[in-house]
From TrEMBL:
Residues 104-184 form the Polymerase/histidinol phosphatase N-terminal domain. This is PHP domain-containing protein. Pfam families: HHH_8, PHP. SUPFAM superfamilies: DNA polymerase beta, N-terminal domain-like (SSF47802), PHP domain-like (SSF89550). It comes from Micromonospora humida. InterPro entries: DNA_pol_lamdba_lyase_dom_sf, HHH_MUS81, PHP_dom, PHP_phosphatase, Pol/His_phosphatase_N, Pol/histidinol_Pase-like, PolX_PHP, UCP036978_PHPhdr.
Amino acid sequence: MSARDPVADLRRIAFLLERANEATYRVRAFRSAATALAALPAAEVAERTRAGTLTDLPGVGDVTARCVTESLAGEEPVYLRRLVATEGVDLDEAAGALRAALRGDCHTHSDWSDGGSPIEEMALAAVELGHEYVVLTDHSPRLTVARGLTADRLRRQLDHVAAVNAALPEGFRILTGIEVDILADGTLDQDEELLARLDVVVGSVHSGLRDERARMTRRMLTAIANPHLDILGHCTGRMVSSRPAGVTGPGDKGHRARTRAESDFDADAVFAACAEHDVAVEINSRPERQDPPKRLIRRALEAGCRFAIDTDAHAPGQLDWQRFGCVRAALCGVPADRVVNTWPADRLLDWTRARASG
Ligand SMILES: [Zn+2]
Ligand SMILES: [Zn+2]
């Protein structure tokens, strides 16, 4: 016999989700599972848990089944533990503290790819926000719709950044980088020699977002094992809403307004690989992305991953969107010491170099 009641745990999770104003369908998922299990004899629930057939029951999915399994093993379900950990925390305060701890932004675009402003303007806006650095991560060659940079253009950009840096205020610098496409086979869309030269490499899936689960998982695992990859960008590729008012027009061509379902992949395998290879999981702050969703941020946190809270800014004003990412991170209980862009630039560079040589 277990010391815990799985039905009570599911109901408690539903209550806490509801109080935290989470999506209704998520709350309902836990209540439906609780109702389905409450109707069965305890012995049958235990037997189905052993046999792994809980999800055959209507209303019981993978996440709720996992909670029941943990609960019957006498453990507080991970999902519940995370919710309890952030219960009663003043969110504004927690999000504000996280935002105050950020020293830079590791994912930004300029008009060299699909951004709307020159590198200089993005840098000056970042200085005004109080950042110590901003990583310039324009797109890679295959993303032609976003004017992805060929190897030659990227080399020219590196020279240009060096010149701009020389003219910027003391104590601030632009770090070099790329948002490199994770190609269909998991390889990265830029020359190896260039990836090695860049300060920070963000890798994102922009094509084949509907790949079937096993294929997408393999693709992501291959990219994560690449020693040049530092940060896994907007990992599900979802689009949750049309862009907010005032965020339209040129300079944002790569992020058209539409909704899009999450890519399907084995999140536990992907986050375990990120933890193993020390790749940070991006918390993308764009209002229409909000990627990863909170349930996946919680799983990545549980897996031991680091994070980068980035804006993916395509215009100077968007550099201030980090607070959106901070609110989501705070809701999931992400501590500042797990966030790589709370580090000074030198420590960030030590980390990316250690990764590249390890
Ligand atoms: Zn992207
Ligand atoms: Zn981007």
